[in-house]
Amino acid sequence: MKVTLRIQRFNPETDKMPYFKSYPIQVDPTDRVLDGLVYVKSFIDGSLAFRRSCGHGVCGSDAVIINGKEGLACKTLFSEVAPGNGDVVTVEPLKHYALQRDLMVDQTKFFENYRAIKPFFMTEKETPKTEWIQSPQEREAFDDETNCILCGACYSVCPVLDENEKYIGPAAIVQASRFVNDSRDDGFEARLPILNDANGVWPCDSHFSCTQVCPRGIKITKAINLLKRKITKHTESKA
Predict the structure, then answer these.
(1) How, if at all, do strands 2-9 and 88-92 pair?
(2) Could you tell me the sign of the dihedral formed by the alpha carbons of 197, 171, 5, 76, in that order?
(3) Model pTM greater than 0.90?
(4) Which residue of 50, 53, 163, 170 pairs with 210 in a disulfide if CB–CB is 3.0 to 4.6 A?
(5) Domain residue spans of the chain
(6) Distance between CA atoms of 137 and 209, rounded to whole angstroms?
C-alpha cells in the first residue's frame, strides 16, 4: 500500500521555524511507523533525525506524536493509522520538551523531575541475606507502575503542563508511586517534599489523557489519585 509520511522537520542550524515535509513510500499494513521512518532516513533523506533503540516497545526512545496522538513508532502499525491506500500519516515530536532537531526533543527537564523523586530503594529495615519475600498482595500494590518505560508520552499529552511547566508530570509521580507503595521501601517522607509541593501531585486534574496514551497500559491517573490520598492521610495523621 502507498502512504505519505508527513514529518515535522527542523534543523536549528538552518531553520527559523519547524516545517513539514512529505515522503510518499510503499509499506505493508503490518509495517510499523518506525519502519517507515527508517526507510525514509536510509533511502530518501539521510538528514532525518529521530530516536530509536530496541524497536520492540521496551526502551521508549521512539515516542512521537502520530496523527495527533502520542505513541511509540515501533508499536504503531500503518494499518492502525493509515487504513486506506494513499493515506497521510503525520509524525511530530513530543510536546512540552524543547525541540532539538526534527523528531528529537531535549528530555533534560523530564529526567530531572524523575531523579527528583528519588527513584531508588530507601529502607530502614534489615536487609535479608536471601530473597526479600513479598506476598502477592504486597506486589500487586505497585505492580502496574513497574511497567513504566519512561517514554515521556504522558508528559507530552498532559494538559496541566500547557499551563504549568513546573508541574513534575505524570511519569515522575508514577515512579514515586512505584516505590512508596512497595512494602520494602521506607522513603515516603523523604519524597514527600516534592510530591506534596504545589507542583507535585496536586495540579493533576484527572484528565486521564496520560492513561489513554500510555503504551504500557498503566493506570496513571489512578496511581496519582491514590498517591494524593496517601499524602492526605499521612499529613492528617501528623496534625
Answers:
(1) parallel
(2) negative
(3) yes
(4) 170
(5) 2-105, 107-238
(6) 28
